[in-house]
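Agenda item 2: glycyl-adenosine-5'-phosphate complex prediction
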Amino acid sequence: MTAKPNPKGSNKTEIIMTIASKRGFFYPSAEIYGAKAGFWTYGHLGTRLKHSWENTWRNYFLSLNKSYFEIDDCNIMPKKVFEGSGHLKHFNDPLTECEKCHFRFRADQLIEDALNTNVGGLDETALTKIMEDNKLICPKCGSKLLPVKWFNMMFELKVGATGEDIMYLRPESAQSPYLAFKREFEALRKKIPFGLAVIGKAFRNEISPRQGFFRLREFTQAELQIFFDPDKINEADNWDFVKAYKLRLCLAKDVNEGKITEITCEEANKELKIPKFYAYNMAKVQQFYLNKLGIPEAKLRFRELDEKERAFYNKLHFDIELDMDTLGGFKEVAGVHYRTNHDLGGHQEHSKEKLEVVIGDKRFIPHVLELSFGVDRNVWALMDIFYREEPERTLFTFPAAISPIDIAVFPLVNKDNIPEVSAEIYERLGKEFKVFMDDSASIGRRYRRQDEVGTPYGITVDYDSLNDNTVTLRDRDSMKQVRVKVDDLIPTIKKLIAKELEFEKAGKAVVAKEKKE
Ligand code: GAP
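Presented output:
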């Protein structure tokens, strides 16, 4: 048996990959030397898209509570950190190797691809048995596969001139707030809950980083660790604002059918026993995707991971999955993790440093609720979900607030003072927005080029502009055009980006039919 073919998805993947590399979103790192799988460079547009996502995340999650802050830390950490966190022992993936060609595969993925079934959480004996029972062979050369064993995914480094210090590249940004906990708790006047966020690199020696841009060996995470009193897990300050809000859940028992249960936070708390603090944060994560990133509701679900599937540090674990054509359905982009006192407890034990707190007359190790996002996966999801094909063009319908370019300026011709007026407008807008000047080829072709990278607004400077100081403003999605005074451009575009103004009301309508190029 093989996995279902997905021609629509693979075709779309190729198209997006081509646009991404040709237009400067991303491309394989060290490409001129023959790139290594799992390492990517963000080009000039991709860097902007990534930063837009990160800034949207930062502004949104750090403003959920006055006591949430961001820190920045090293990527390389001592071995003892990962003894304390448990990664040295538990951060393993199941590996199988071909007896003949010695190619190595991630066993669970190999089985899932071949049998189209979920085997997450099974141990090495169970995985080996499934491979044997189903006579699975090496996808490369057709030979026998060896029994499954565990492979630790951390990158080890030898540090110092003699190389005797063994250190590791951090496999998750999360460890940084745990290591900083004591200092920040004291600096922040010994109150909980408080939160420490990191937007930074993580490194994993993935066995088969084959899903293009999705499974990387070096990637960025945006994670918020919220330290709280475990006795208050069933309390949430702003519960009244979310209790009637409906979450889209795919419960562990429904994963195979993919059934989605829409349930209010109140019902999730009463019927599914999801604690209020956890449900509140799920609501905030869902609202981030729907309201801030403009992801269509039907494309999002929370998938519950059962005891066998969830990470070794989690007691309650829902992944956020987005439905992507390029990946054949719902795939994980983030997670809400109840990590208990696993990490602070482990670090207290291994470092011998007291990490418990005293609040009132209670002494305890705070528990952690983690909101964990893979930035690169989210960038890919934006490219997948907002890609659109129309008979005359391809475009990314990114929400204006996250597009890599806000506005493109097009001088109609390169003479008669039009370039000079365009340059002035470009300078003025450049103080407030990300602006791009495109002065070559026909206007229609220039529109298409900007549509292809998702630029929401275009401004054409023409002969009328010289007389009446107005320009044509074009909307990417509807291709409608209005005439706007140059002096009104900045406030008008600000309102459009903030969705406070409908495009048709932004100026005097222009009847324009775009020519096919
Ligand atoms: N601190 C918790 C943690 O790291 P995780 O589920 O292993 O949990 C969190 O990772 C997120 O990081 C995932 O939801 C995913 O978006 C991203 N991620 C994990 N491994 C990745 C990889 N190899 N390449 C790209 N993103 C990855």
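Discussion summary: Residues 229 and 361 are 13 Å apart (CA to CA).
Owner for follow-up: CH.
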